[in-house]
Amino acid sequence: MPTDSSRREADDRRVGYVVPDGAPLWARSVLGIVFPGVFLAYLAQTAVGVGHHADGAWRTLGDALLITFGLCYLVILGRRNTELRRLEASGTTLVLFVAMIVCTLVVAPLAHEDVWMMYVFISVVAVAMFGHRGLIVAAGLTLVGMFLPPLVPSWHAGVQWSPAFTIPLVSLALFAFFAVVRANAELTEAKSEIARLATEGERNRIARDLHDLLGHSLTSITIKAGLARRLSATDADAAATEIAEVETLARGALADVRAAVGGYRDVTLASELATGREVLRAAGIEARFPGAIDTVEVAYRALFGWVVREGVTNVVRHSGATSCDITLGASWLAITDDGIGGDHASGNGLSGLRERVEAAGGRLESGARAEGGWRVRATMSAPEPPVDHDRAAMAAATTPELTR
């Protein structure tokens, strides 16, 4: 189970606080407290207003409330956890937020029109805690900062125009900042989940494939080893024959495992179709792919896997399409989309793919379609698929011949 410290560190990294492992507490507080604290210098305007309009105990009270206001602001922004990315405030931050409002109400008669600077900090905290709903608070405080001073006769002040610009600009900037923070956090969490699912899927696939490869061979080895043990006491020659067959089966199983492990590093048509479908889905593009690849010659499937990989990448990057179709035959594969057309071949991807296809005895065609969109088609010109003699020799040498 993750510890509190590990969860906090994960939260810190999601919201952009990259602190080295083992850093002291003061270092972890730099971004959470010191950076927001720099902006408290703007409260000096309100402090000047308190000094100008209040004396004695009232001035002391005003200064104390300004310090309390600043501390509440620092504690809220210094919590640096996921609360600042939520639309709903927690109990602690809500209490501190109310305390900031109370401090502002008491300081207002002491600072007169200069109290509006406190409205800026309240707007910042409101946007941080409530998201787009905090903009409503900022709009209300903007109106109060502008039109409250002329409504209070003892303040002898007219309409204030500074709040009309400062509060909306700061609030919108903070809203955009926290929107980026939330988007980055969601993207990080999604990437982590995708990586976890990919790892789990790969583990299950390896387990399934190894079971299919080794299940029959190991069963046969077990049976023949037991038969050899029983025959060893009565018929040494027969026992030796069984042991030789066990050795053959073991070598075949070892070759199968090595070939399977090597295959995970190869591009395959089936895996690229599955991956391409997910990539297009994530990009909001409808994927219309064949459900099976049985019609494609085995010797061409790896090459066509490369075609699918590059073709789908280009559709996502360049096409602006809403759908992508893949059709295939025994010796050809075509990828079409309904995008804007244009030059997909501006990079090195298609040129390298064309060299790969031509080296295998085929040709690669790409270009805009008359009806709109783009098409990539790989066609193998060989009348019969080439034989991979190395693989064929290995298969012939390692295929076990089972006996009863």
- Strand content of the residues, in percent? 5-15%
Q: How many individual domains?
A: 2
Output the strand order for the largest sheet: 1-2-3-5-4
Task: Give a short account of the largest sheet.
Answer: 5 strands, mixed
Walkthrough of the structure:
There is one protein chain. By secondary structure, the chain is α+β, with helices and mostly antiparallel strands. It folds into two domains: 4-191, no CATH class; 269-380, Heat Shock Protein 90 (2-Layer Sandwich). The protein is built from 13 helices and five strands. It has helices at residues 4-14, 25-38, 44-53, 56-78, 91-111, 116-130, 134-151, 162-231, 236-263, 269-282, 298-319, 349-359, 389-398, and strands at 286-288, 323-328, 332-337, 362-368, 374-380. Helix 2 (25-38) packs across helix 4, helix 5 (91-111) packs antiparallel against helix 6 and helix 10 packs parallel to helix 11 (298-319). The longest helix has 70 residues, at 162-231. Residues 1-26, 81-88 and 383-404 have low confidence and may be disordered.
Q: What's the layout of helices and strands?
A:
Blueprint: H1 4-14, H2 25-38, H3 44-53, H4 56-78, H5 91-111, H6 116-130, H7 134-151, H8 162-231, H9 236-263, H10 269-282, E1 286-288, H11 298-319, E2 323-328, E3 332-337, H12 349-359, E4 362-368, E5 374-380, H13 389-398
Helix pairs in contact: 2-4, 3-4, 4-5, 4-6, 5-6, 6-7, 6-8, 7-8, 8-9, 10-11, 11-12
